[in-house]
Amino acid sequence: MKNKRGFTWMLCIVLMFSVILTACSGNNGGTNAPSNAAEATDPPATTDNQPAPEENKEPVTLKLISWSDSYTELYKKFNEKYPWITIEQVPVNSQPIMEIIASLEAAGTPADLTWIDSDLITFDQAGLVEDLTPYIDKDPTFQDVQLPEGFFDTMTYKEKRLAVPFVDVPMWILVNKDLLAKHGVEMPANDWTYDDFREVAKKITDPEAGEYGLTTQPEFQMRVLSTKAIADGHAANIHYMNEDLTQSLLNTPDVMNDVRWLSDFVWKDGSMQSNAKAAETGDVTREFINGKTGFAIGGDWVLPGLKKDAKFEWDVLPFPRGKVSQPGYSIYGPLSLLSGSKHKEEAFLWISFQFSKEAQKWKIDQGANASVIDPELTAYYDETPMWEGKNKEAVKIAKENAKIQPGVTVPAWSEYNWNNILNEIIFDGADINRLIPETEKWNKRTLEVRESLK
């Protein structure tokens, strides 16, 4: 363990010196300031998240590393509540976040907060993120809200809360209602089944018109397929993981049959085009917005474009019902407080602010889920302009039934090659039996890494 930690710190040092050398050879002349990542800082001892109006505070600018520039309005709301604190987004621009952290540390302007782009274990091993437990335990907002059971489970490692879900991104089945109507098919009910899903997809497929049941998009195997495995009782967690997230079940007979089921949409039913067929027809069926497909997978990120540019009537449905349950699919965006921050107290206020009703309602307005359990927030789904005229009950079902995407605290998760292999099997016709040795290899690897981390 000692050697592993030493290696990780060496990696961070190499990254920092790499940044410095690059800066010196270019037009940046930053100096190498020592990191305070190892310094312990007591959590804020405030008793009220709302400061007294007469208090004079020194201005603070928090650097937040993120890959989205769509939160400017939320930054402004936070600044209105805490006028002395300004959020400055540090864009990722396809650069690994650990490199950005090292770069800012080397320049003497360390970041305060970060979204996480890989597994949290690596960040923890490098000493880059704070344990949020003492902050949360003393924070008035967290003490006053009700959170779902197991809310922190996917972001807790060795009893340390290394991140909080910054945003709860739900998934739905997007529906082209005009295409359904053209083929005489009614909008399915919210309790529809996977059999219904397949049958409707076949009914609305018309190759002569260039119309297909499903959009040719990897999200069908990334989201629906692994959720179906849960719905039919073949796996306990998303991405075919077992109950305690220690092993993949992707090579089991039942799950492999689930893979065959989705492959049949392409190679038997013809209701979803393969990659090759999609390319032959100009890739029109790769985008739901084109109006040539009946179903697609969507999350909050697609809503602005649909509301603005769709030339057809669209709506949403929850993921279908299986033999034992009707789970949905949700992604938590991990938000961490960096150990190198010089403004930990103020940075945690931003974390805490995410769970205020004001911030929660703003996120609902963007199409995300409310993380806090509260009747007022549940009622707000009926009030938000985002879902006006749409299937609001489906949105609520997707929230209530959501299974959370795992991974950030699963050892060797980045080496789990399920996504690429399934894309090749389903959309390119690759041999399904590749799943057996690949899954066995990863199952062995994740146990080895788990053991090394003890």
Automatic annotation (TrEMBL):
SUPFAM superfamilies: Periplasmic binding protein-like II. The keyword Signal applies. Residues 37-48 have a biased composition (Low complexity). This is ABC-type glycerol-3-phosphate transport system substrate-binding protein. Residues 33-59 are annotated as: Disordered. The lineage of its organism: Bacteria, Bacillati, Bacillota, Bacilli, Bacillales. Keywords: Signal. It comes from Paenibacillus endophyticus. Residues 1-23 form the signal peptide.
